[in-house]
Amino acid sequence: MFSVEERCHFIRQQIAGSNASVETFEGLVVDFARSKNAIALIRGLRAVSDFEYEFQMTQMNRDLDPGIETIFLMPTARYFFTSSTLMKQVSQFDPGRVDKFVPPVVADALKRKFAQASQAE
Asked: Which H or E run includes 72?
């Protein structure tokens, strides 16, 4: 729904003032991590359904570069059921109801995107 540039813009606004940065890459994440001298990948696990995919990904990454570990973080109960798909679906029908789940810049972008889509119809 949003371009890579738009998503990076949203993240940059959220992390402004921190020592974090946003970069895009193409290819394998372990190759990108190695190019940054990273020693770990941090991944989120929301639900059991995420685990199988993440486990497979971790095993492949470990085989590709055993020097890069994967660390999993669990969200608070407030966010564990959210997904971009759910946020888009809810926002399409009632944009204000995603405000408590996404940053304000994302909520505003979703409202604009669906307002433009409804005007085009």
From this structure: strand 69-73
Domain assignment of residue 26, yes or no: no
| Total domains in the fold of the chain | 1
d(CA 83, CA 13): 20
Encode pLDDT of 2-52 as tens digits: 999 999 999 999 999 999 999 999 999 999 999 999 999 999 998 887 889
- pLDDT on residue 60: 97
The answer to the question of residue 22 being in a domain is: no
Phi-psi category of 12—alpha, beta or left, where left has phi over 0 and alpha has psi -120 to 50? alpha
pLDDT of residue 49: 79
- Which residues neighbour 104 within 8 Å (Cβ) at sequence distance 6 or greater? none
Rounded-to-integer distance, Cα 24 and Cα 4, Å: 8
